[in-house]
Specification:
mainly alpha, 124 residues
Length: 124
Amino acid sequence: MDIFAKIAERKIVEAIQEGLFDNLSNSGKPLVIEDLSLVPEELRMAYKILKNAGMIPPELEDRKEIINLRELINTIDDDTLRLKKIRELNYKILKYNLQNKRPLHLDEQYENRINERLMGFDKR
């Protein structure tokens, strides 16, 4: 253990003995640890700053748009409008995949439903 770690450890022990940690606002509550393992290490601090400022990175905004569009498609009754939105969704997914150089993972049931609908539209 280096000298700085020993000094820090001693200061922490002293603070515990003096009771400085007894009345903390989140005492007894579990820590909220964010999983940033999928974020490249060099971008983690920038993402944390953006999050604390109430902003999200562009790729997360794109992902949010894709999820919202998926939900919208499930509520549309008009076949023509649904097909238009499905094409828009496919374009957004393709764009997301190309920009991020990794595929956006959608649930398999959704992909199957899209394929079934597209096959049904092609026959008309």
